[in-house]
């Protein structure tokens, strides 16, 4: 029994000794200088490089340098491409439509020009400030306001009438009432047409009959010789009556009632 216990102690002692020696070996490996392995890796990578490929790369670099030197010699200045600024927005691509306006409006304007003939010009989407004068204190009243169409004589661009294409809603109604009052003051007729493509030339001709048959009469002021314009009174005892008013008014106060001969 005693010998068995001694045997067990010897086995355990040997096992502990072997474990201790293995631990020391592992620790020594970890503390070893790794430069030997790095040198081995570098020499292995050098062996993997194809010497022919290295030679070809060197030759290509030499030829590129030679060509660049030749270009610099032949050209005193080398143009460089501008750097692309990626912060700028991408520019849209524009294409031309098949025609101006949509089909309904285009058909109306074509028929209107044909009906009015070569005597008149059809001006589209005209700002009111281009043909109406107003006191400087009230100039903001005309800002942003336009009329669909103006019919003018080619000679002198004298306005014959205004044409407003109908719209829907209270905003259009308010706008049209404003135009009616304005054209009443300047003494020119105003017509309204629905913006549909079934308006016949006969209907256009019938609506504009008075304008197309009545020639625009020019008149010069008897006092200063300047041109006179037609105006219609909108208030007072002469409301609704038309007058010739000198364009120099109020500097020249010459006013002649239309229908009254001097």
Can you offer a commentary on this structure?
The chain has 262 residues and is an alpha+beta fold. Among the domains are: 103-216; 217-262, no CATH class. It has 7 helices and 7 strands. The chain has helices at 2-31, 35-48, 51-74, 103-116, 170-186, 201-207, 209-213; strands at residues 120-127, 146-153, 159-165, 190-193, 228-232, 242-246, 255-257. The strands form 2 sheets. It has a 4-stranded mixed beta sheet. A 3-stranded antiparallel beta sheet has the order 5-6-7. It is elongated, with a radius of gyration of 49 Å. The mean pLDDT is 78.
In short:
The chain is of the alpha+beta class.
Q: What are its keywords?
A:
single chain, 262 residues, alpha+beta, 3-stranded antiparallel β-sheet, 42% helix, elongated
Compute the average pLDDT. Answer: 78
User: What are the low-pLDDT stretches, counting only 5+ consecutive residues below 50?
Assistant: none
Strand content: 15-25%
The number of strands is: 7
Instruction: Please count the helical segments.
Output: 7
Q: Biggest sheet, in brief?
A: 4 strands, mixed
Chart the SSEs and their pairings.
Layout: H1 2-31, H2 35-48, H3 51-74, H4 103-116, E1 120-127, E2 146-153, E3 159-165, H5 170-186, E4 190-193, H6 201-207, H7 209-213, E5 228-232, E6 242-246, E7 255-257
């Amino acid at each position: 029994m005693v010998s068995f216990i001694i045997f067990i102690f010897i086995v355990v002692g040997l096992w502990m000794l072997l474990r201790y020696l293995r631990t020391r070996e592992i620790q020594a490996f970890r503390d070893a200088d790794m430069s030997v392995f790095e040198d081995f890796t570098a020499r292995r990578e050098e062996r993997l490089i194809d010497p022919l490929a290295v030679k070809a790369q060197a030759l290509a670099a030499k030829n590129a340098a030679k060509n660049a030197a030749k270009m610099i010699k032949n050209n005193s200045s080398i143009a460089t491409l501008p750097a692309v600024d990626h912060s700028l927005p991408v520019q849209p691509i524009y294409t031309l439509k098949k025609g101006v306006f949509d089909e309904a409006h285009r058909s109306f304007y074509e028929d209107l020009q044909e009906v009015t003939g070569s005597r008149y010009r059809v001006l589209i989407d005209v700002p009111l400030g281009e043909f109406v004068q107003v006191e400087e204190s009230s100039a903001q009243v005309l800002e942003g306001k336009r009329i669909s169409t103006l019919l003018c004589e080619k000679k002198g661009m004298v306005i014959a009438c205004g044409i407003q294409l109908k719209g829907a809603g209270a905003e259009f109604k308010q706008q049209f009432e404003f135009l009616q009052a304005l054209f009443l003051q300047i003494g020119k007729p105003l017509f309204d047409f629905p913006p549909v493509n079934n308006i016949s030339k006969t209907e256009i001709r019938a609506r504009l009959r008075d304008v197309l048959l009545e020639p625009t009469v020019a008149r010069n002021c008897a006092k200063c010789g300047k041109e006179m314009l037609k105006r219609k009174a909108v208030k007072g005892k002469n409301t609704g009556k038309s007058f010739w008013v000198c364009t120099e008014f109020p500097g020249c106060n010459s006013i002649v009632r239309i229908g009254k001969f001097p």
